[in-house]
Amino acid sequence: MTGASSGIGLGIAERLIADGARVFAVTRSQADLDRVTGSIPVTGGFVGELHTPDVAADLVTAAVQSLGHVDILVNNAGGGVIAPTLEHTEETLQATIDNNLWTTIRCVRAVLPHMISRGHGRIVNVGADSVRTGLMDHAIYNAAKGGVHAMVTGLAREFADSGITANTVAPCYVRTPELSALFASGAAPARLLQVVEQGTAMIPLGRPGDPAEVAAMVAFLAGDDSGFVTGQTIYVNGGASMG
């Protein structure tokens, strides 16, 4: 799984391991991978910038060598600059699309031939509820995550005959340990606090999500019980958007 080093990604990795999966963790730096391997029993790992051509192919090769085969791809790698649209620069625009959309496209394309050869696969993307709610400062981020959401309908129909399902899990604002530490430090920018306040106010259940709640949905979609679920974007959002 990609983006395994912290927050939602680490929570997903922990849940999949608890459910009996062997997890191959992917991070952007060796320090991040070392932190993962020091905290949870992953089977192996890989470091790379997945939006770069050919890196995802190297990842799949390494994962197959480590695991023997790959049944599940969890595309959690992401992150972008959350900012008013006109404050973005060419660099932040590119980084937001690279980190969220290109990484997902390249990993999907890299793993599909292997899954097709086995006649089985589960592709689970991590999207964003903000695509539907229009959360402040998220327009460019939503452009990237919206592409991630849209992929699964085409993938689901195209590769159904190969035994492959494709779905997206779209969480609302999730209170990760990293964000909690930032807010506790008093160093969080005022604009970020506004975004968090707005995001929380949208949630009828009255609180942010927890990484474990997102991980539970990913684990369901990665498992055998979800074999008749494909082409869906499932919102884990406390009711922030409905329908």
How would you characterize this protein structure?
The protein has 243 residues and is α/β, with parallel strands linked by helices. Helix content is 49%, strand content 12%. It has 9 helices and 6 strands; from the N terminus they run αβαβαβαβααβαααβ. Helix 4 links the parallel strand 3 and strand 4. It is globular, with a radius of gyration of 17 Å. The model has no long low-confidence stretch (mean pLDDT 95).
The tally of helices reads: 9
Here the CATH topology of the largest domain equals Rossmann fold
Work out the strand percent: 5-15%
Let me know the number of strands. 6
Known CATH architecture of the largest domain = 3-Layer(aba) Sandwich
How many strands, what sense, and barrel or not for the largest sheet? 4 strands, parallel
Form type: globular
Identify the notable features of this structure and list them briefly:
single chain, 243 residues, alpha/beta, Rossmann fold, 4-stranded parallel β-sheet, two-stranded parallel sheet, 9 helices, 12% strand, globular, NAD(P)-bd_dom_sf, cell wall, secreted, oxidoreductase
